[in-house]
Amino acid sequence: MLINKKILLFLAAGALAFGLGLGLSFNFGANPQPVEVPAITGFVINPPKPVEAFTLIGQDGQPFHQESWQGQWTFLYFGYTFCPDVCPLTLLELSKLQKILEREQRDQNVAYLFISVDPKRDTPQRLGEYAGYFNPKFRGATGTAEELARLARQFGVYYKIADAAEGENYTVDHSTAVLLIDPKARLRAVFTQHAPEVMAADFKKIVDYDRAAAQ
């Protein structure tokens, strides 16, 4: 991630939210929810956006698809293991988030997935080692260029491999937002800032809201 492209990627995160038709605290569903949609440091997606079918390869070499998200909350981040700055920093923040949720006993039903948009270099084995380095609960996945592009489009995630990419020495520009998938495999929120304490508080708001709305 080149430093002079940080502003562009921040704007891309804003475009992500706009492209998905989101608002900070607005309810776009056909039926009003019984409680107010929570305001977070990012974007709550209301109603949640179902994820269309896809197939990736997990770090264990087994297929990973939308059903793999069923039954748990998932913090999702797109990047690549050769990323020099933003990816490792974000994964460090997510590791801090995991420890906060664990300390508060709110981590039992939460997963963390790092999806590589650089399948040429990021093998499943490398992804597993890389994600596990930051936190033993982190998992990695990747896929074909076509599958990755299809999944990224669903989320409005931007990435682009350098035009002059040759050999093993190249960079990949990509969005920096962290996405939240709900237990029904739907896109629920977009976090554009990654302060662990703030994300933990925002996550609690979303979980409490969904619990209240279901009653």
Tags for this model:
two-stranded antiparallel sheet, 215 residues, alpha+beta, Glutaredoxin, globular, eight-stranded mixed beta sheet, single chain, 23% strand
In whole angstroms, how far apart are the ends? 44 Å
**Rg, nearest Å:** 17 Å
| Strand/helix succession | HEEEEHEHEHEEEEH
Helical content band: 25-40%
Number of helices: 5
> What does the average pLDDT come to?
87
What count of domains describes the coordinates? Answer: 1
> How much beta, percentage-wise?
15-25%
Can you tell me the CATH architecture? Answer: 3-Layer(aba) Sandwich
SS class: alpha+beta
Order of strands in the sheet with the most strands? 1-10-9-4-5-6-2-3
The CATH topology name reads: Glutaredoxin
- Gross geometry: globular
- Write the CATH homologous superfamily: Glutaredoxin
Q: Largest sheet, if any? A: 8 strands, mixed
Low-confidence segments, given as residue ranges, are: 1-12, 21-30
* Name of the top-level CATH class: Alpha Beta
Beta-strand segment tally: 10
Overview of this structure, please?
With about 220 residues, this protein is α+β, with helices and mostly antiparallel strands. It has 5 helices and 10 strands, in the order αββββαβαβαββββα. The chain has helices at about 5-20, 85-105, 125-135, 145-155, 195-215, and strands spanning about 45-50, 55-60, 65, 75-80, 110-115, 140, 160, 170-175, 180, 185-190. An 8-stranded mixed beta sheet has the order 1-10-9-4-5-6-2-3.
